[in-house]
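#struct-help
A.M.: can someone run this one for me? Single chain, 279 residues.
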Amino acid sequence: MTLLTWILHTADAAELKAERIVTLGSCVTEMMFALGEGEQVTAVDSSSTWPQRVRGLPQVGYHRQLSAEGILALQPTLVLGTTQAGPPETLQKLRAVGVNVQLFDAPHSLDGALGLLQAVADERGKRAQGGQIVAGIRAQLAAVRARSTASQAPRVLALMAAGGSLMVAGRDTAADLMIGLAGGINVATQISGYKPYSTEAVLGLAPDVILLPDHVLPQLGGREAVLKLPGLAQTPAMRNQALLVMDSAKLLGLGPRLGEAVQEMAARLQSLSPLAVNP
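D.P.: on it. Structure tokens below:
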């Protein structure tokens, strides 16, 4: 469908009573459902995989590589996402034909993540409900902090992919934030963002635990293959088979399940820590 065709087709848009919302980014999608707004969501981006029902909705592709035509074909009344959505040309085309596009600051910290969730709630006129969700997350995080002991903090390497080199998560990433909130220490904070690492460099980091999003596991050939990866097999983590695999959207999404994800990671890090493995 061309842009001109879409403009003509939406001449009768005033007759449409129900909202048709496209959400971009798992944090935004999950928050819409947490607010009870899921019935208004008619399409999502490929990173949105929870709750289960979103997997049956049309997808508009990866939120950083969007096509205006693909979104316009769905006749959206509102597009909700973060500032990671793009490219800019696509967003300009959507706005040029009158689509309401609302983008929230992409989270890079705990305050940013909670602020995003509240902003989505405010946009939907559900400020009080958003505040309750944020307060619940803060309570879950406080419970984790109360149980953590810095002297036993495990050293964690977040592995994002493997090919010719290993892609690891440094500082200023969702993985780094989650590791810290769960009481661990990210061993790769000398880098920013997600960067390739040589096997020799990874070996020098000497992680106690390898953290892996579950979408990466099959790409690497499964658990046994990961345990034998060059550069990892000789680390303390792999010698103790301390491999922590978590749901990707839950781990990296920084959405309304953030507190739940931190609680899960903290408990599993504790069970995989050197003291637990080698009492």
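A.M.: thanks! The two ends are 64 Å apart (CA to CA).
D.P.: also worth noting: Confidence is low (pLDDT under 50) at residues 11-16.
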